[in-house]
Design a protein that fits this description.
Layout: H1 5-12, E1 16-20, H2 24-32, E2 37-39, H3 44-51, H4 53-66, H5 70-95, E3 102-105, H6 115-128, E4 132-137, H7 140-151, E5 156-161, H8 164-181, E6 187-191, H9 194-207, H10 213-216, H11 219-234, E7 239-242, H12 249-252, E8 260-264, H13 265-273, H14 288-297, H15 299-305, H16 319-348
Parallel strand pairs: 1-2, 1-8, 2-3, 3-4, 4-5, 5-6, 6-7, 7-8
Helix pairs in contact: 3-4, 3-16, 4-5, 4-16, 5-16, 6-7, 7-8, 9-16, 14-15
Amino acid sequence: MTATYFAQLLAETPTRVWVNNPTIEEIGLALARGAVGCTTNPGYGGNLLRRAPDEILPIIEAAVRETDDDARAADLVQQRLVARIAARFLPLFEASGGSAGFVSIQGAPEMDTRADHIEHEAREAHAIGPNVTPKIPATLAGLAAFERVVADGFPTIVTEVFSVDQFVDTNERFLAVTARTGVVPPFFMSPITGIFGDHLKLVAEREGLQAQASDMELAGVALTRACYRIAQERGYPVTILAGGARIPLDLTGLVGGAMHATVNWSTFAEVLASPEPFARGFDEPLDPDAIARLMTTFPDVRRAFEPGALTPDAYDGFGPVQHFRNVFIAGWDAVHAAIAAERASLTTA
C-alpha cells in the first residue's frame, strides 16, 4: 500500500483510525497520518518499559517520591503517561467541538471486579483533561460502573467486548440510562479483534485442536462486523472502536464501515509498507467455511456469536476476556516491579 493509504481512508470512507499505546515519537507519526484519537490500556506502562524506558522511568521515579503507596504510584504513572498524550490530541478535540481527539485510560486490572473502584477510576480519568475518557470493561462490575458514569453525562469507551451478548447488553443499558437523563454523551465500544485470535490459538495448542491460524485470525474481525450489523439494524447510538489488532487485516478488514479502529503504530507502518492497493476491506466477505469451522471447533466462538449464550455474570469468566486481562496484568505488574526497584534504590542510596 502506498503512503497515501490513510489519506484515502480519510477521504473515501467513514472509517477512522486511532493509535494505541504510542511512544512520544509515534504520537506525532500517527497524528500526521490522520489519527483521530488514542487508546491506552493497563499494559501501556509495561509496553513502554520494553520499548521506550527513557520515557517512563522518570515518571516512575517521580511517582515513587510522591507517595509511599505502590498502588497509588502505579495509578499516577498511568495517569501521567496519558496526560502527555492528551495534550497532543487536545487541539484536535477543541477543533472538532469535542467529537474527536479522545485519549483513553484504563486502570488497575486486578480491580476489575469492583464496580466502585472502576467508577472511581473513571472519574479520575475525566479529571486528567477534557479529552480523556475511561475505558470500562464489559463485565458485570464494569457495566454497573458504566451506567453511573453515563448518567453523569461523561464520554465512555467500553472494552473487553468478545461477544454479541456483551455488545447488546451494554447498548441497551446505555439507551435506558440516556432515556432517563436526556443526555447522550459520546459512546464507544471496542470489540477486540486480534486478541480473540490469540486466545483461540492458545486454546487450540492447549487442547490439541486442529485449526488453521488463518481461520483463527478471522474471529475478531467477524465479531466486529457482527456487532456493527446489530448496531446498524437497531440504531444504537454507539461508535464501534475495534481494538486489539495483531495483523493488518484487523484494520483493513474493517475499512469502509462507519466505525473506528485503534492499532499500534507498528500496524500503521505495516499497512503503509504493503504493496497492496487501497481497498474497502469491509466490503469483502470473510470465508464462510472458515467461520463455520471456528464455530464447530471452539465453544468460545459459538458463545461469542450466539445471542443469549452468555449471561452478564458470565462475562468476566469468558475465555477471551480472561486472556485479555492476563495481558493487562502482565504489563501492570511490570510497572509495579519497576516501582519496587526504584523504591529499593532510594532506601539503599
